[in-house]
Amino acid sequence: MSIPGIVKNDPWLEPYTAVIQNRINRFNEYKKMYTLSEGFTRAHEYYGEHLIDGKTVLREWAPYAVRIQLLCDYTSWRADSSGPTIEFTRLNDYGDWELSLDNDILSHGSHYRLLISWEGGCGERIPAYARRVVQDPETHIFTAQVWFPEQPYQWKADEKTVSADVPIIYEGHVGMAKEDGGVGSFEEFRINILPRIKAAGYNTVQLMALMEHPYYASFGYQVSSFFALSSRYGTPEDFKQLVDDCHDMGMAIIMDLVHSHAVKNEVEGLSLQDGSDYLYFHEGVRGQHPAWDSRCFNYGKKETINFLLSNCRFWMEEYRLDGFRFDGVTSMIYLDHGLGASFDHYDKYFGGNVDEDAVLYLSLSNDLIHSIKPSAFTVAEDMSCMPGIAAPQEEGGCGFDFRLTMGLPDYWIKIIKEQKDEDWKASEIWDVLNNRRWSEKHISYSESHDQALVGDKTIIFRLMDAAMYSDMAVGVESLHADRGIGFYKLINLLTFTAGGEGYMTFMGNEFGHPEWIDFPREGNGWSYHYARRQWSLADNTKLRYSRLLAFTADMIKNCGEALADSEIRLLHIHDSDGVLAYERGGLLFVVNLNPQRSYVDYGIPADMGRWKLVMNTDDSNYDGQGRIPTKLAIETTGCEDGIDRLSLYLPSRTALIFRRK
């Protein structure tokens, strides 16, 4: 038996060689099967709503149904003898149904639903492949909407290849990107937010909550219509223009892809679509997610794989996206969804609790995505650290390009909450930053939307608390603000430069946004007050927020290229002093974590030569104390032990970044 690549990279996987090889064999078998099956990843081109020879054609897969009727204005939204009725025709025993209509019944902008009947019951439903679903602002009822605009969107040019080999990702939410409350639009995000993202230096926009979801406060993670762009932000044409502008700015754009579960709603979602609870999901208890109160896909069912792979293709081809962040991967690949599990032994990655069908689906989806667009990239949200998630399929992996460093945010929060500043250990921080599978690429982050949700606190809020509201004016003397801002910069710099091969920030955290996220709900009086971003704070040069934004932009500009070098060389670490130094991509990073002690003539090993200061976190432009000259070049000095060193002044809570001249 040949040795899989991930086993070669990690000999501790040797006892699991047979399981890993079986994953490779299954992937090759199913890839061949689906490749030979004409249209297997193009289900959306058959099912759903299509304009064919001037007629609107609707097709559904509903094998358990005995009748499907159309509900719309023409039928007075009824399906009884009181008015005209329109029925689908069942085409075959497989369960395909079709309806062909003249434009006087359904045309662009028309609203409709289906009434699906089965043995013993019936229910109104949204079509499974609906591409546009809207909610009535008064009745709050969701309906499918025919969307065939007379003038389809004209893309600005041939599809551009926007490569992000080192993704520096801006995680955003269109709806909460406004400052004045309400739900933001694609147009507003395109005009007002894209230029901010570009100016700060990010090369990738990652958008949440694009797939239609009935409950706005779910953050888009309770998806109902997988092929429908959320209509609360605007039209498909509005979003295509946003994508076009993003590409024009040289930025890639990816989306949160939620294939880990589906909302349990029956009318708006897929649950009991044709009366059966197993159409796309597991039957019975296994089909119910115990923590999320949602439905669990059956990744071992051909039709489910057909649906989900087609969904990947649809979003890439219809909207020219550059990839996906796969949400909830841990929940997908374990039968217990990883709930309460401690992944403390390799047995747990290859035992009976693993859903091998889900692992296979992830491998197939990544293969499809990269075949559609070779420059595309995918990111896995997996908290279990499954070996091989971000390794090629032929080596025994799932084919993701990157995985998120999900332990880092928790670690930063833990030491902020539990340790005094002077007890932070440089060696422990370094170990956590580097505790990852080096044969796989990672996207590092200190916080995402998860850390900003109501009931939690952002990192800067944990560091500063009430000083966020009272002490953020430039020039106001505040030990709380100085401490919080100093450590905030160090945490982000360490995460950015030593935590992975890419980086992610949630919208607003680039300038230390002061508040949590709380979407409108009954418990807060349906308020949008915390479902917004206060951009004016970053724009006001009289506030420290503007200086944090300047720090982030310069950090990305000066240090971003270093992430392309996967080798990080530790040069010095001293827990008592709180000092660590490392080299990456030709840059030398020297960090003094000590909250009180500054050091004069501190020796840091460095390659012989003259080193120029690139930036330092204590710069007054970044709301530092300005204790380091901004123009500084230092020669190494040979020491008796034969090691060349830089003799540096290291202020407390400060990082210095050098490049050799």
3D architecture notes:
- This protein is an alpha+beta fold and 661 residues long.
- Among the domains are: 103 residues, Immunoglobulins (Immunoglobulin-like, Sandwich), CATH 2.60.40.10; 94 residues, Sandwich (Immunoglobulin-like), CATH 2.60.40.
- The protein is 25% helix and 22% strand.
- It is built from 15 helices and 31 strands.
- An 8-stranded parallel barrel has the order 10-11-14-18-19-20-21-22. Strands 23-24-25-31-27-28 form a 6-stranded antiparallel β-sheet.
- A hairpin with a 5-residue loop joins strand 4 and strand 5.
- Helix 2 packs across helix 8, helix 3 runs parallel beside helix 4 and helix 5 packs parallel to helix 8.
- 48% of the residues are buried.
Gist?
With about 650 residues, the chain is an alpha+beta fold. The model has no long low-confidence stretch (mean pLDDT about 95).
